[in-house]
Amino acid sequence: MKKCIACGMPMKSPEDYPLGDTTKNYCKYCAKPDGSMQNYEEKLTSMTEFVVKTQGLDRQVAEESAAYMLSKLPAWKKERS
Ligand SMILES: [Zn+2]
């Protein structure tokens, strides 16, 4: 089973993939309507909103937390250590 490289969500069925395309390594939540992957800024914004909504943090804190989560994912890792 693949995991989305951009948000870490396990992708179990074709419906989890953008436009049902199982050759992609990111999920439909990380894709734009045309099926291409969101960029870092777009993903950070949506992740921040998700954290605000689910954890009730204020935006500043939520953004830091979202940036930390994204830094752990293969799509956004800047350097290998
Ligand atoms: Zn994803």
Structural class: mainly alpha
Number of domains: 1
The helix tally amounts to 2
What percent strand? under 5%
Kindly report the oligomeric state of this protein.
Answer: single chain
Question: Using DSSP, what is the number of strands?
Answer: 2
Strand order of the largest sheet: 1-2
Query: Which ligands, by name, code or SMILES, are bound?
Result: zinc ion
The CA-CA distance between the termini, in Å, is: 25 Å
Radius of gyration over C-alpha positions, nearest whole angstrom = 13 Å
Provide the succession of SSEs. Answer: EEHH
Can you tell me the overall shape?
Answer: elongated
Protein name: AraC family transcriptional regulator
Domain Putative zinc ribbon: 4-77
Pfam families: Zn_ribbon_2
Task: Describe the model.
This protein is mainly α. The chain has one domain (2-71). It contains two helices and two strands, in the order ββαα. Strands 1-2 form a two-stranded antiparallel sheet. Helix 1 packs across helix 2 (59-71). The longest helix has 16 residues, at 40-55. It comes from Sporolactobacillus laevolacticus DSM 442. InterPro entries: Zn_ribbon_dom_put. Residues 4-77 form the Putative zinc ribbon domain.
